Amino acid sequence: MRVALFITCVNDTLFPGTGRAVVRLLRRLGCEVDFPREQTCCGQMHVNTGYPEEGTRLARRFVDVFAGYDAVVAPSGSCAAMVREQYPRLARAAAAASERETAFEREVAEVAPKVHDLSEFLVDVLGVTDVGAYFPHRVTYHPTCHSLRGLHLGDRPARLLREVRGLELVPLPGAEECCGFGGTFAVKNPAVSAAMCADKVHNVMATGAEVLCAADNSCLMHIGGTLGRQRSGVGVMHLAEILAATEQDAPFPAGEATGGRAGGAR
Amino acid sequence: MSGTFLGMPAFPGNAAAAVRDSQLRFNLHKATRTIRGKRAAVVGELPDWGELRAAGKEIKDHTLRNLDRYLLQLEEAVTRAGGRVHWAADAAEANRIVAELVEATGETKVVKVKSMATQEIGLNEALAERGVTAYETDLAELIVQLGDDWPSHILVPAIHRNRSEIREIFREKMAEWGRAAPEDLTDEPRALAEAARLHLRERFLSSKVAISGANFMIAETGTLVVLESEGNGRMCLTLPETLISVVGIEKLLPRWQDLEVFLQLLPRSSTGERMNPYTSTWTGAAEGQEFHLVLLDNGRTDVLADEVGRQALRCIRCSACLNVCPVYERVGGHAYGSVYPGPIGAILTPQLHGMTRATPASHGRGISELDASLPYASSLCGACFEACPVAIDIPEVLVHLRAKAPHPRSERLAMRAAGWIFDRPVRLARTQRFGGRLRRFVPGRLPGPGAAWTDTRDIPDIPAESFRDWWDRTEGSTR
Fold first, then answer.
1. Which pLDDT value is given to residue A252?
2. Domain co-membership, A119 together with A148
3. Is residue A155 located within the same domain as residue A62?
4. Which of A88, A145, B243, B265 has the fewest beta carbons closer than 10 A?
5. DSSP alpha helices (H): ranges in chain A?
6. A194:B456 CB<8 A
7. Above pLDDT 70, what percent of chain A?
8. CB-based contact A16 B399, cutoff 8 Å
9. Is a pLDDT exceeding 60 seen at residue B430?
10. Residue A71 touches partner B, C-beta closer than 8 Å
11. A3 to each of A22, A24, A156, B7, B217, how far by Cα in Å?
C-alpha cells in the first residue's frame, strides 16, 4: 500500500519526533511510506481565524500534492478533520463563486475521504490494534475535540494503547472536555483558554499518570506548556510516539531524562 | 437589540475579568454541570433522539424556506380567531406598537411572562420611558429585575446568582417593587420561592395587561405556545384583560402536529425534564380578552438571506449549548454583552445586528467591537453542535462569521506572511532552519503578543532539525 505521510506544519516545524515515529511505526507494519515534499499546511489556521481565501489556496495545494495516493496518514486529528470536514465546504463555496471551480470540488471529493488520522488508519485500514509496541509507563489519554467530535475516533486510540505491552492506561476524568487550545483562540482569548486548561491539568494530575497522550500535538503543546510551567513533572507524548516505542527502540531509555516535552524547566 | 449592553468592551476583556470572579466561577460550574448531567440522562434514554433531532431540523428548515407563506397563514388564522396582528420591522417599531397598545388601555403597569424577544428589543426600558412599569414574573427574571442586573442565561437568567445572594436581593429590593420579603427570610429554596409567590400573587391579581413572547406559533391554527416551569406564565396569560405577545417571525411551525417533535426536544434539552411542567396554548382572543400579536423581524430576514448563517434561526432557545460550552461555563453570560449569550449568542447576536454593514440596530456605526469579537469567543470544540436539538452547526457558522468580521491590521499582516511562507515548501524550510538557529535565544517569556501564550504556558523547544530536513537527509531510513 502506497501511503503518503501528511506531517502537518506544526509537527514538521516543532515536533519532528512525532513524524519520525509515524514513519518508523508504519514501516514496521509493512507500509511503504512516502513524504511528498511539496506539502506545507492544510490551511486550518487561516480558515478558522477568518481567512478563507488563503486557506482555500492551501487546500488546493493539498489536493494537488496528495492526489494519487492510496491513503494519506496524518498524526493529527485536527488537521485530518480540517480536510474531511472543511475542504468540501471550501470547495462548494469556490464552486458557487465560479463555474470553472468544479474541478477543485471533484479533487476534494476524491482526496478528502482518503485522509486518515493515524489511529483510524491503523484500526480501520490496516486492521491492527496490537502494533507490537512496548512502553512501561502509566499513561492517560486526552481525546482532542476534533478527533472526538470531528472524526469520531471513539475508542480507537484506547484500543491501540491497551495493546501496548507494559502500558497502564488510566482514564482521564472529564476527558471529553476541551483543553482550551482552539488554535488562535489560545492567544485571542488567553484568559479563558488558561482557565479551561487549569481544569484539564487538574484532571490530568488527578490520574497520577506519568505521561499525557493525545492525537494532536497542538493541544499537547498547550496542555504540556501549562504542565511544564507548573513544573508538574507530567510529560506529554503524541500517540504515534508511544505506538512506535519498542524494547529495542525506547523513546527515553532508562537513565535518560524524558526531554524538553516533559513538564520540566526549559 | 436593546441598548442595554451598548458600549461594552470586546469579549476577551469581559472574559478576562469574569474568569477571576470566584463566586461567579463557582456558581456557574455547579449550575451548568447539574443541568448538563440532567440533560444527558434524559436525552440518552430516548432511542430515537437522533431521528427527533433530524425531524426538528427539517421542520424548521422547511418553515424558514416558506416563511412568507406561513406568516400570512398565521396572520389569517389569528385574525379569524379574534386576535390582532401587528408587523414590526425592528425593535423601535415593536416597542412603539406595544407602548401604544398599553396606553390605549389606560394602564401604567403590565405583568410579563419570561420572554427573550422582549429583552432583545429592550421593551421594559422603552415602556419605562413612556411611564409604564413592566413587572417580570418569572422567578429568575424577578431576581434579575430586583437586583438591577442583566440576565446571563437564556433559560436561567439568574444562573450567576446563588441562593444567599438571592436572599439578600429579596430582602433589600422586594419592598420597592411591591410586597416586601418576610423579615425572617432564609436562603432555603422553599422560603425564597414562597416569598416570590406572595410578592407576585399581588401583582397577578391587580394587573390588567400582560406581555408575553412565545416558544412556538402554529400557522395552520393561529395558536401560540408558551412552555414554562412555574405557572407564573399561565397566570399572566389568563388573568389580565389584554394580552400582547411579541414573537420573532422564526418561531413559526406549519402544523399543530409539528409540536409533537418540539415538545419532546425542548424540555429534555433545556431543563432536562421528560415533559414540560406548564405548557399553555391559546388561539386568538379568549372570551372577554383582547389579544395582540406583534410579529418581530429585527434583523431576522437579513439572517435568513445568509445561506450558512441562517441555520441560527432554527434555534428554539433551549440553552443546551450554553450548558455544555466550556467557554460559557467559565465566563458566564454577561461577557457576551447580549441577551443571547453562549455559543448561540455568539452566532445570533452579530448576525441580528448585521455583520458587515451599518444597521439601525448598530446605530449606523457598523459592527461594534464586541459583536466583531463574538465569533471568536469559542475554541470550536463542537460540544454545542453535538448538544443542539435542532442540529445547528454552531462551529461552522462561527468560522463563517469570522471570515466576515473585521480583522486587526497586525493579524492580517501575520496571516498574509504565514500564507506566503506556506505557499512554497522552500520558504517553509528556510523559515524552519532560521528558527532552528535561533532556538537557544528564545526567551521563556515572550514580549508583545507572544505574551498571550507565555503568560501561562512554556513554549516547546524548537528542534534543531525540522521533519522535512530530516527526511531529506535520511529518506526516513534512520531515527
1. 62
2. no
3. no
4. A88
5. 9-14, 16-28, 44-49, 52-66, 77-81, 87-97, 102-111, 118-120, 145, 156-162, 185-188, 190-207, 217-229, 239-244
6. yes
7. 94
8. no
9. yes
10. no
11. 11, 13, 20, 55, 55
Given CB atoms, is A101 within the 8 Å cutoff of chain B? no
Q: B382, A185: Cβ pair inside 8 Å?
A: no
Please indicate if any CB of chain A lies within 8 Å of the CB of B420: no
**A126, A146, A170: which is the final residue of a domain?**
A126
pLDDT at A183 over 80: yes
Distance CA B386, CA B334 (A): 24
| Residue numbers in A near B422 (CB within 8 A) | 9, 40-41, 43, 58, 61
Residue B282, class by beta-carbon neighbours within 10 Å (0-12 exposed, 13-18 middle, 19+ buried)?
Answer: buried
Spatial neighbors of A148 by CB under 8 A, at least 6 apart, are A77, A176
| Whether pLDDT at B85 is above 50 | yes
Q: B124 near B254, Cβ under 8 Å?
A: no
Average pLDDT over residues B352-368: 66
Domain C-terminal end among A126, A158, A182: A126
Number of folded domains that form chain A: 2
B chain contacts of residue A149, beta-carbon cutoff 8 Å: 381-383, 385-386
| Partner A contacted by B128 (CB < 8 A) | no
Across residues B211-215, what is the average pLDDT?
98
Is A249 a member of any domain? no
Smallest Cβ distance to B399: which of A48, A176, A191? A48
In a shared domain, residues A79 and A178: no
**Does the distance separating the beta carbons of B403 and A52 come in below 8 Å?**
yes
Which residues of chain B make contact with A45, given a CB cutoff of 8 A? 415, 418
- Range A82-87, long-range pairs (CB < 8 A, 24+ positions): A82/A42, A82/A43, A82/A44, A82/A47, A82/A146, A83/A42, A83/A59, A83/A111, A83/A112, A83/A115, A84/A112, A84/A113, A84/A115, A84/A150, A84/A151, A85/A150, A86/A44, A86/A47, A86/B399, A87/A59, A87/A62, A87/A63, A87/A112
Cα separation of A137 and B184, whole Å? 59
Query: Which of the four pLDDT bands, split at 50, 70 and 90, describes residue A253?
Result: low
pLDDT over 70, % of chain B: 96
- Under a CB-based contact definition with an 8 Å cutoff, are residues B389 and B320 in contact? yes
A66 and A154 assigned to the same domain: no
Residue in B closest to A15 by C-alpha: B463
Q: Among residues 372-391 of chain B, which lie with CB inside 8 Å of chain A?
A: 375-383, 385-386
By residue range, what is the domain housing residue A208?
A: 138-244
**Whether B68 contacts chain A with CB within 8 A:** no
Instruction: State residue A266's pLDDT score.
Output: 32
pLDDT digit string (tens) for A189-206?
999 999 999 999 999 999
Q: Max Cα separation, chain B?
A: 89
On the question of pLDDT at A255 being above 60, the answer is: no
Percentage of residues in chain B having pLDDT higher than 90: 92
How does residue A97 score in pLDDT terms, banded at 50, 70 and 90? confident
In chain B, what are the domains? 3-300 (3.40.50.10420), 414-474 (no CATH)
Examine the pLDDT at B237 and tell me if it is beyond 70.
yes
Whether B444 has its CB under 8 Å from any CB of chain A: the answer is yes
Contacts of B25 in chain A (CB under 8 A): 195
Instruction: Let me know whether A96 and A10 are in one domain.
Output: yes
Span B139-166, mean pLDDT? 94
* CATH code (residue A217): 3.40.50
Pairing of strands B252-253, B216-218: parallel
Sign of torsion over alpha carbons B279, B281, B287, B291 = positive
